[in-house]
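Subject: Interface between my chains keeps coming out wrong

I've been trying for a while to get a sensible model of this assembly. When I model each chain on its own everything looks fine, but I need the whole thing in one frame so I can look at the contacts. Pasting all components below, labels as-is. Any help appreciated, I'm running out of ideas.
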Amino acid sequence: MPKLIDHDTKKLDIAHATWKIILKEGVRGASVRNIAKEAGITLGALRYYFTTQDELLVYTEDLIHATLAERTAELFMVDLPPQEKILQLLIGLLPETGSGSSAVEARLILKLQSKHSGKSFDASRDSIYQAVKSIMSNLVMLNLLKKETDLSLETDRLYALMDGLAMDAMLRGAVNKPDKARNILETHLNSICKEGSGGQL
Amino acid sequence: MPKLIDHDTKKLDIAHATWKIILKEGVRGASVRNIAKEAGITLGALRYYFTTQDELLVYTEDLIHATLAERTAELFMVDLPPQEKILQLLIGLLPETGSGSSAVEARLILKLQSKHSGKSFDASRDSIYQAVKSIMSNLVMLNLLKKETDLSLETDRLYALMDGLAMDAMLRGAVNKPDKARNILETHLNSICKEGSGGQL
DNA sequence: ATTTATTTAATACACCTGTACTATATTTAT
DNA sequence: ATAAATATAGTACAGGTGTATTAAATAAAT
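Reply #2:
Try treating it as a single job with all components included. I did that and got this:
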């Protein structure tokens, strides 16, 4: 008896509109009215799918992390030598220059926002943190890391570096040379990996 | 003929109130009314010193950067062996655990906000970027860096690392071990400095 | 064709927003 | 004391905010 509208598809549409607005105007501009307009529906319609604004934001954040996790999985399957693959993977998790729908940027904005939104930031639900953890444990598995490496410490160091690079790319992206981030990540990887182990870049 | 109120002192008071609110509630909560209440004055009074909200925010951001630059200068004068001094300096530019008036945190919030505030982020006005640049050129001067170091690249790498660490400390500060950041920075410094040059930590 | 469940539109409420304006203090200089 | 300059309070306007409620439209099932 319903109108033939897929509930979940519609929710995804709205979440994508939210995502887009967050990138364009920040969380500040992500009012329900703005989002409804962006999604091409009415306030009442939006309200039908998400009874509360917070519910919509949580849903959108989940979508963004799911998207990033999926991209991570794809990048893991590329056919390349291990160290080069990992480098490409990390680069792939930075804001793409010119892409208008960057999941990385949206994640960063929402991550910082979490400081003032009641619910505290949970790294275990952060797709980027998970990706970095996977990468590090892969390096361990392949025995590419230098001896006496503190895995936990290096994980956190790389994670911080990724957040900083993402921020830099987002805020001064145009100013930077195209593969500045690539060179930095390459240097970083070389500094934590064994030398001459065939993995050298 | 005026009431004996130091204009600049009052402006600083208001800016400090703004600063405090930004930490507590984010830029979103930094409405002129909220700020006026925090500063213990009326909306009209606030409006007398800052005719526009944006003017107040710019003023506050300048204050924060000036505060950080001052702290950097102080930390540069501590009497310690070079490499240890630099380590302490970097640690001093991360969010202090438990301090309710962290300039570093406020800077980070405003930095990210710059994406959606029209005016684009200018690294040359960023106190942290300047500090990192000073630190790196000091390492060069003291001949502590490894041969074949790309100075510009390592500057940007350390800068990104600092931003990432600041973010981490701010968002999951309680979760982290007290000197996690210290260990990370120590590792990082050792990895870019010559070994056995007497600067080893 | 009529019933039924789902989807949309429209409106209203109470509140917060930045800015503008006016009238009233308050304090110093003459 | 009077005048001038500074400072504050109070109020108003136009618009945005999240949420709630109601009535209407839509399309499938009977």
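Reply #3:
Confirming on my end. Residues 1-4, 31-33, 43-44, 47, 51-53 of chain B lie near DNA strand C (CB under 10 Å from a C1').
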